[in-house]
Amino acid sequence: MTTLKKVLLYSSAAIVLAAAAGAIFRPDAEVRVRKADKPAKYIFVMIGDGMGAAQVAAAESYLSYKAGRLGGEQLTFTGFPVLGLCTTYSADSNITDSAASGTAIATGNKTDNHYLGVAPDGSPLKSMAYTLHEKGYNVGIMSSVPVNHATPGAFYAHQEDRGNYYEISLEIPESGFEFFAGSGILDFNGKDGSREDIDKVLESKGYDVCYGLDELAASADESGVVVLPSDQKKEEALNYEIEHGDDAKEDRLGEVLEAAIEYLGDEEPFFIMCEGGEIDWAAHDNNVTELLDAISRFNEAVSVAYGFYLEHPDETLIVVTADHETGGITIGADKGNMIDWSGIEKDSLPEDENLNDKQKNRAFSASHNIGWTTFEHTGAPVPVYAIGKGAEKFSGRIDNTDIYAKVVCE
Ligand SMILES: [Zn+2]
C-alpha cells in the first residue's frame, strides 16, 4: 500500500470516528479576528431590540403587500452583503434580557440577566465605546427609548441592577462621551423622586441638555450633548419613542442619527450605537401594527447610516443586529395559508372584556394569521447584517460576545 493510500484510509477512518463521537465544528484561530486588523474609521452598531429573523420577515412581507406583491420588498439592512446568526444566551439563562445581552455585545462578556456593564461578580466591564474613545473616536449613544434604558446603558454604565436608572444617568458625564440621545430619562428625580433634576446634574457636569433637535441646532456647546424630546417633562419620560407616527412633533430616530453624524463630524473617527428600542416593547405587547411601524423607523435610521457608508465606503462599518428575539412571532398561525395584511394598520382590536390589552393584540394578530408564542423574550438566535470595512468577520455562526472583538479588532 502506498503512503498516499494509507493517509487517505487513515483520514477517512478519522472522519468516521469523529462522526461517531458526535464531532462538532469548533472555530480555530484562522476564523478569529486577525490582530493586525484596524477598526473602521466610522462605526455604526445598530441594535433592533427584540428583532428576530421572523420580525424582519414580517416587516418585509408587509412592505411587499403594500407594493402589491407577495414578497420581494426589502429593508435596507437585509440587502447588506454579510449575514451571520448570533446566539444570545446570558450567563445565567438560555433566555437573555436586554441588560445581559447589551453587556455581551458591548463588552464581549456574558453576564447575568439584569446586570448592566458588570460581570456576575459585580466587577466593571469595558464596553467598545470606551475602548474606541480611548483610541480617539468620538462616541454617540442613542435610542428611540430612554437614554438610560438597558441597551444604551450597556455601552456606558456599570450597575448590578438595570433598574438603577438615576445612577445609570449619572454615568453619562462619567463616560465623557460626546453625544447622547433618547426618548427621555427614566427616574428624572430618582426612584423616590427626591434627587436633583437629572438635566441640571448633567448641565452642571458640562453637558448641554437639548430638548429636541431644534435646540441642538441652536446650541453652540461643543463639550457634549444629551438630546431629549421637546416634550420630555421629568416623570413623563415614558413616552416610548423619540417620535410616534408621521404627524408626530418629535424627532424621528433617523433624524437624530443624522444630527449625531453632523455633531460628531467626519474629521475624527466616530463610533455610534443606535437602538430601535420600541421594537421590543411592541413585541412584548404582541402588537403587530406597532412592531411593523417600529421596524420601519429603525430601518430609516439604518438608511441614514447606509447613506453615510456610500460616501465613505472604505472607512465605514455598519453592523445591524438584535440583542434577542421577543414574542416568538410566527408568520402563519393556525388559521390558514395566507397572511392577510389588509387592515393591519388599524387598531381594530376585538371587544372582549375577558381579554387584557396584550391578549387582544394577540387575537388581532391571529386574525391576520400572525402568531405569537410569548409576551416575553425567547432564546432564538438573531440575525447579524453587516456592510463595509471588516464586515466579513460577522458572517456565519457567532455569539453575541464575539461582536466586541470584531468591532474593535482586539
Ligand atoms: Zn424586552
Overall tally of structural domains: 1
| Share of residues in strands | 15-25%
Q: How many alpha or pi helices?
A: 13
Number of strands: 14
Overall pLDDT: 88
Strand order of the largest sheet: 5-6-4-3-7-1-8-13-2-14
Low-confidence stretches: 5-10, 234-241
- Following the backbone from N to C, one meets helices and strands in this order, namely HEHEHHEHHEHEHEHEHHEEEHEEEEH
CATH class: Alpha Beta
Class by alpha and beta content: alpha/beta
Query: What is the straight-line distance between the termini?
Result: 48 Å
CATH homologous superfamily designation: Alkaline Phosphatase, subunit A
Helix content: 25-40%
Return the CATH topology. Answer: Alkaline Phosphatase, subunit A
In short:
With 410 residues, the protein is of the alpha/beta class.
Task: Summarize the structure in words.
This protein is α/β, with parallel strands linked by helices and 410 residues long. The chain has a single domain (42-408), classed as 3-Layer(aba) Sandwich (Alkaline Phosphatase, subunit A), CATH 3.40.720. It is built from 13 helices and 14 strands. It has helices at residues 3-20, 53-66, 98-107, 128-134, 150-153, 165-175, 198-204, 213-218, 253-264, 278-284, 288-311, 357-367, 403-408; strands spanning 42-48, 82-87, 138-143, 179-181, 208-211, 225-228, 270-276, 316-321, 325-326, 330-331, 370-371, 377-378, 382-388, 396-399. The strands form 3 sheets. The chain has a 10-stranded mixed β-sheet, with helices on both faces. β5 (208-211), α8 and β6 (225-228) form a beta-alpha-beta unit. α2 packs across α11 (288-311), α9 packs parallel to α11 (288-311) and α10 packs antiparallel against α11. The chain is globular, with a radius of gyration of 22 Å. The protein starts with a helix and ends with a helix. Mean pLDDT is 88; it is low at 5-10 and 234-241. The structure holds zinc ion. The site of zinc ion has 6 residues, from α10. Residues 50, 98, 280, 284, 326, 377 line the site of zinc ion.
